[in-house]
Amino acid sequence: MTDTAATRTAFRTCPLCEAGCGLEIGLRGQNGDETVTRIRGDRADVFSHGFICPKGSTLKQLHEDPDWLRRPMVKRDGAFVEVAWDEAFAEIEARLLPIMEAHGRDAAAVYVGNPNAHSLAGMLYLRPLIRALGSTNVFSASTVDQRPKEISAGLMFGGGLTVPVPDVDRTDFLLMLGANPYESNGSLATAPDWPGKIEALLERGGTLVVVDPRRSRTAQVASQHVAVRPGADPFLLMALVNVLAADGLVDTGPAGEYLSGLDEAIAAAQPFTPEAVEEVTGVDAATIRQLAHDLAAAPTACVYGRIGTTTALYGTLTSWLVDVLNALTGNLDRPGGAMFAKAAAGAANTRGKPRVGRGLTLHRRRSRVRGLGETLGELPVACLAEEIDTPGEGQIRALVTVAGNPVLSTPNAGRLDAALATLEFFVAVDPYINETTRHADVILPVPTALQKGHYDLALLQLALRNVANYSPPILPLEEGQPDEWQVMARLALVFQGMGAGADPAVVDDLVVQSLVGAAVADETGPIAGRDPEEIIALLGERTGPERLIDLMLRIGPYGDGFGATPGGLTLDVLLDQPHGVDLGPLEPRLPDVLRTPSGMVELAPEPIVADVARLRAALDAPTTGMTLVGRRDLRSNNSWMHNVEVLVKGRPRCTVHVHPDDAARLGLTDGAEAQVASRTGKVTIPVEVTENIRPGVVSIPHGWGHDLDGVELGVARRYAGVNSNLLADEELLDPLSGNAVLNGIPVELSPV
Ligand SMILES: Nc1nc2c(c(=O)[nH]1)N[C@H]1C(S)=C(S)[C@@H](COP(=O)(O)OP(=O)(O)OC[C@H]3O[C@@H](n4cnc5c(=O)[nH]c(N)nc54)[C@H](O)[C@@H]3O)O[C@H]1N2
Ligand SMILES: Nc1nc2c(c(=O)[nH]1)N[C@H]1C(S)=C(S)[C@@H](COP(=O)(O)OP(=O)(O)OC[C@H]3O[C@@H](n4cnc5c(=O)[nH]c(N)nc54)[C@H](O)[C@@H]3O)O[C@H]1N2
Ligand code: SF4
Ligand SMILES: [Mo]
Fold this sequence. Notes:
The chain is of the alpha/beta class. The chain is built from 25 helices and 29 strands. The strands form nine sheets. Strands 5-4-17-16-15-6-7 form a seven-stranded mixed β-sheet, covered by helices on one side. One ligand MGD is lined by residues 17-18, 114, 145, 177-181, 183-185, 187, 211-214, 216, 228, 230-231, 233, 306-309, 312, 629-634, 636-638, 743-744.
């Protein structure tokens, strides 16, 4: 079927989730005044082969959304008015700088959200922006997401993004915990078409075991579903280690010679016999023993844990245990096991000397009010509200958000919402007036995805196959509209005191100089010792992200090395290949991938082993009462795509799932409303009675609750739903990573 309405076809990687599907986009009209006719999966894409989910085609609706801001907004007398770009930056300069002059740089905080991981501007220009702000109050969505995995990977392998990913295409046995790729399309394991990969695994006689308190769509297709109690994954994984050791099943395989701390890791599991964890996990000892034996017996296997395991009380321990199990069963770094991607651009584990690293130091400073530890330069977002609403020296008085909606995505959202209303100044880089940005004094909008270039700098470091793909912008910017990176660069200049009128090219030049400087200083790299000016000249006329991507590709592991490897990757090569370049299946990367101080895989990092005592203590005190977990829906994307009618129409998706036994006991009926209450808040929400959840557990998706005063999302308001993070408790977190607990929150339910 050809798109007869189209006069031109363009190709682009979808930036909405981690799957990174190739899109084929039909356009009609004259240059400069084109409209999108149709978006479908690009069958020639080297990675996605035509796969697409219902969100991919909505890049058109997002681009045409009348609520998507095209001009900056400034709040005057309580109402937003459209202003020119220069005026918006002047306003920020006039209002933010005096606050920092009077109270110090820490008086301003920054929160950066999820879409930054999917954008070149976020990946390349956030760092200068944060540095220019000069505040230690840096927060991000990482501490409501994957921070525990970054910490465990940093300690074990020497890099926060050196995360082994499940080689789903070749494995015989996949043990998946707290992930539901049939809805989420996969996370920290980048690949389009997870459903297809899982079906292929099952078809070739492989096994999928899903550990989840809910019988999710992924659990429904699995060979085995283990309905664990929320938060109990670390006990279950400890017991698996325990059985492997007790029954003589440890066989570390080819990675064995690069492992250190093996005995210590095994010893840590000693108290956690299957019998000892039976009650706390809700999984019987025989099932746990069998699972350990099945894992060990599989020719190849991989253990993979995601959001249900990281947004939990022992997130770091659990993330570590996942890879300990991969190592103990000989599956670390072998085909069919858990492997490391070798990204074409931007990966720290392809730079510098192999097996040399500085080590990861946690908690180098602590938050003012609660004393929570810093990780990777950030404080836990679970303490943002108290840092704003607690008076005293060092109080946060001003906020910068970039692509974040913490009012819907972080714990004790009610407290944060109230705190944001008290800020002296708030600037948001965001296309919508939503639950968070309605509190802003200035909103700086960004172009739509169709107007921006794209390369998945972060996510391709976690890909299940090595690929590279650049998408140039498809539709032009409007007259006078800055690109997203220019907005960020100008903000950085304002923060630095260079003035509202400074040229963003200054920041761009500094970024390129610093990257080139590091590359010529890297003795192991392809341009070691060369003249930086020569390299910058070779990058030619390009500016912005395109110049930086060209540089990163050329000095990357497949790059042309500026002449060192003729025929190697450059941006021009990718521009000639709109369906992407396939760089092949994952290959073993030990030991060169390591950047630990010891040059080994650290199976027993000190801070993690020290945390085992906390887990041990909890063995004797299993929680009682109802607990709340989250869930995702294929047609949703965190908090910000509910303004697309085709995605939200139909049956309501923001409901509380309740098991029939609990519903009967509590007097709740399907379709009627229930009140769900926690220490921090309460919501009233329709009940969906379902067998697909463990008794004692209820589930509410996050990212809803759009009917707040001042939210200007015409469609989302009509399908408002409720904000599940009113219930999430900011006091509950994983102390090592500072990651919030978003699953396993104690709640009470009652009929309304
Ligand atoms: N209870 C519960 N809470 C959760 C989770 C959960 O499972 N349960 N999941 C957590 C996870 S994994 C995550 S990642 C976080 C997400 O937390 P956030 O990143 O805070 O929230 P998002 O909903 O992704 O909001 C993205 C914001 O970016 C804006 N935006 C969209 N595209 C762009 C763009 O191209 N540029 C810019 N500048 N802005 C853009 C949107 O308008 C929106 O305001 O939520 C977390 N919160
Ligand atoms: N459609 C859609 N796709 C998305 C997103 C979205 O909002 N919508 N968000 C994107 C983002 S930012 C991320 S980080 C990824 C997340 O990707 P996934 O990690 O796959 O996220 P979920 O689909 O929420 O699956 C988490 C599962 O963990 C289960 N769970 C809850 N508590 C526990 C527990 O204690 N133990 C175990 N074992 N399981 C538990 C939940 O029931 C749920 O089925 O998805 C990305 N993709
Ligand atoms: S799965 Fe859907 S949202 Fe994710 S990249 Fe593919 S088309 Fe986009
Ligand atoms: Mo996320």
